[in-house]
Amino acid sequence: MVRRLERVTEWVMGVMLAAMMVLVFSNVVLRYAFGTGIVWGEEISRLLFVWLVFLGAILALKNHQHLGLELLVARLSPQGRKLCAILSHSLMLYALYLFFMGSYVQTVIGLDIYSTVLRFSTALYAAAGLFPALVMAVIVLLNLVRILMSHPAAMIPGTPDHAAFGSDL
């Protein structure tokens, strides 16, 4: 189920990227060749880009592909690495809470503000943070529970054996 959702997300991201490419390329050609352009293309491209970034962040977190520096943590004992992982996961959950709340506030503010050309609610931009914040919080929380339970699939940064790398939730 999780793998299927991941594939659907990747497919949606591919469609969004293709649409952005077509819109931006068409606008460039139309501007230079004909002195005109697709007026609404920039708004749609910007909206797709925002959603694309946040959907990509979910996949990167799920697959442990965000940048990280494990040099110091790798030198700690297994218990020290576990303690650092618990602390970092707790901080990530707090940051995701702040991210969700900020996105929520901005979404509410954006409900009464409309884009210049297409007149869609600018809440669509800020709403792009709501879903990823929730999904990323679930991913982090599941790994935190695994760490606390000493589950073999727990991903603890700095651990020499990353057997859980890329595994399903």
UniProtKB/TrEMBL annotation:
Q: In what way does this protein cross or attach to the membrane? A: Multi-pass membrane protein
Superkingdom of this protein's organism: Bacteria
Which biological process, per GO, is one annotated for this protein? Answer: C4-dicarboxylate transport
Main localisation: membrane
Q: Name one GO cellular component term.
A: plasma membrane
Q: Which residues cross the membrane?
A: 12-32, 44-62, 83-104, 124-145
Q: Which UniProt keywords apply?
A: Cell inner membrane, Cell membrane, Membrane, Transmembrane, Transmembrane helix, Transport
User: Which GO molecular-function terms appear in the entry?
Assistant: transmembrane transporter activity
Instruction: Write one Pfam family the protein is assigned to.
Output: DctQ
Where does it reside? Cell inner membrane
In this chain the Tripartite ATP-independent periplasmic transporters DctQ component domain maps to 20-147
Instruction: State what this protein does.
Output: Part of the tripartite ATP-independent periplasmic (TRAP) transport system.
> Tell me, how does this one assemble?
The complex comprises the extracytoplasmic solute receptor protein and the two transmembrane proteins.
Family according to the record? Belongs to the TRAP transporter small permease family.
The name this protein carries in UniProt is: TRAP transporter small permease protein
Q: What is the organism field in this record?
A: Elstera litoralis
